């Protein structure tokens, strides 16, 4: 998605501009020293058969990593989204700071506010007309296999990230001209210790993926752990004929 990639690139440039000695002393431990390691974590909710496996995708967009599900897997938990977006084959989910994530232009004040304050959050959903590898050619991504139980837990966590009214309807915000994406009010607050990538790690962990969720502030930490989890899953994968799907994309 061009806008998301542009925002990620701009954030990287802003970080490079702002990371002077004083800020480095304050932030380097957070951003570089705690990139995330899933030591001691184990897969949960493993499928009994390969026929039970469902694929999800972890996709890196520079600074940010999101999670994509197929349209068939949205289920009753996330099916409400189809009323707010164009039809898609896959839907990618992200969570982030409300002003920063929705801004058409990222300014230094917006960046500093996102870094140093506790701020409201939004959910971002992108309707993808093609498979992730086709939609984002060349992007770093990992395909993970979840059981039906793991997928249900993950979808429950995704749904819980949307702020819903008494009738269980979301609060739609800014969207694309053709329904290709939409922001919604999110649950929880964005903090330097709970960023978009921390959220991504927590959602993956809810589905049974071995993830360290405490200090995963950068997409690199999320992707490193997702790749390790995909390799470990190959060792644990149930035997027998597979019905649909492919091996994890590394």
Automatic annotation (TrEMBL):
One Pfam family, short name: DUF2459
Domain of life: Bacteria
Annotated protein name in UniProt: DUF2459 domain-containing protein
Annotated organism of origin: Geomonas propionica
